[in-house]
Known about the structure:
Blueprint: H1 2-25, H2 30-36, H3 40-45, H4 47-72, H5 76-100, H6 105-127
Amino acid sequence: xxxxxxxxxSLAALVHVYVFVLESLVWTGPRARATFGTTPDEAAATRAxxxxxxxxxxxxxxxxxxxxxxxxxxxxxxGTTLVLVGAGSMVAAGLVLLASDxxxxxxxxxxxxxxxxxxxxxxxxxxA
Length: 128
């Protein structure tokens, strides 16, 4: 189950890499505007905020990636701690999005379900 948890959390990290690209690199482009439902004027006005938010997503990816590498290197305690912190933060952010704007439920679930399943599998793998 430990491997399943690491794979699920890694998939969640890949989603957040995509979000980083959308928010920090191509925020004012048509794909990001379609994904986030912004107009060209809204995207231009919020560009600095989105750039910053994208890096938050990237930092969560780094936590999970480093954690997976450490688990693979035999440092299970430190590695799983990093993965759990990164994935837990993704779940928490998804819950905040869900609670703050019900119209974004689909996006919130995409953000929180894979890392939540990964956390469950990691914990089961650690206790089993």
